[in-house]
Structures are given as structure tokens and as C-alpha cells.
């Protein structure tokens, strides 16, 4: 029986409005101004965090690419040098 009450409480809490209705027109105007501003600030903060994460990821990827390209270039130069030495010894 207690589980049924908890379920009803959960359902009724989901059905409640997010904010209580205002009693005056002025409160509605204030809420209408503050809510979009707060929402915009929240979205801007989330967007800023996402941009910073993408920039950080890009920076790490560039560093990894530079290391890999340097290693590949070094390998190819060593292979070329060994090929030249080997072909010079055969003449």
C-alpha cells in the first residue's frame, strides 16, 4: 500500500507546473523578462563549455598529428638513406 502512495506522489509531482502561477500582470512581465534571460545565459554557458572542449580536442589532435607526421617523415628518410647506401654498395 505504501508503494501505491509513492507512485501517486511521483505522478502528481510530474503533473505540477514548473512554477506557480503569478497573481499580477507585473509579475508575469518580470518572469517573462527574467526567464528568457536566464535561459539564454544558461545556453550560452553550455555553448561556451562545448566550444572550449572542442578547442581542447582540436589542440590535442594537432599535437598527435605533428608527432605522428614527424615519426613517419623520420622513418621514410631513414628508409631512403638505407636504400641509397644499399644501392651504392652494389655498384
TrEMBL record:
Mff-like domain location: 16-84
Pfam families cross-referenced by the UniProt entry: Miff
InterPro entries: Mff-like_dom
Region described as Disordered: spans on this chain: 1-27
Compartments (UniProt record): Membrane; Mitochondrion outer membrane
Membrane topology of the entry: Single-pass membrane protein
Low complexity biased stretches: 14-24
Gene Ontology terms: cellular component: mitochondrial outer membrane
The entry's keywords: Coiled coil, Membrane, Mitochondrion, Mitochondrion outer membrane, Transmembrane, Transmembrane helix
Ranges annotated as biased composition (Basic residues): 1-13
Residues spanning the membrane: 66-86
Keyword DNA-binding among record annotations: no
Any coiled-coil regions, as ranges: 37-64
Name this protein carries in UniProt: Mff-like domain-containing protein
Organism of this sequence: Macrostomum lignano
Amino acid at each position: 500500500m505504501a508503494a501505491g502512495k509513492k507512485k501517486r506522489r511521483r505522478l502528481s509531482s510530474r503533473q505540477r507546473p514548473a512554477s506557480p502561477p503569478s497573481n499580477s500582470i507585473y509579475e508575469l512581465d518580470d518572469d517573462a523578462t527574467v526567464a528568457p534571460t536566464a535561459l539564454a545565459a544558461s545556453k550560452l554557458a553550455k555553448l561556451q563549455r562545448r566550444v572550449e572542449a572542442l578547442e581542447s580536442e582540436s589542440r590535442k589532435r594537432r599535437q598527435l598529428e605533428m608527432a605522428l607526421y614527424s615519426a613517419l617523415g623520420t622513418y621514410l628518410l631513414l628508409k631512403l638513406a638505407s636504400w641509397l647506401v644499399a644501392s651504392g654498395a652494389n655498384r
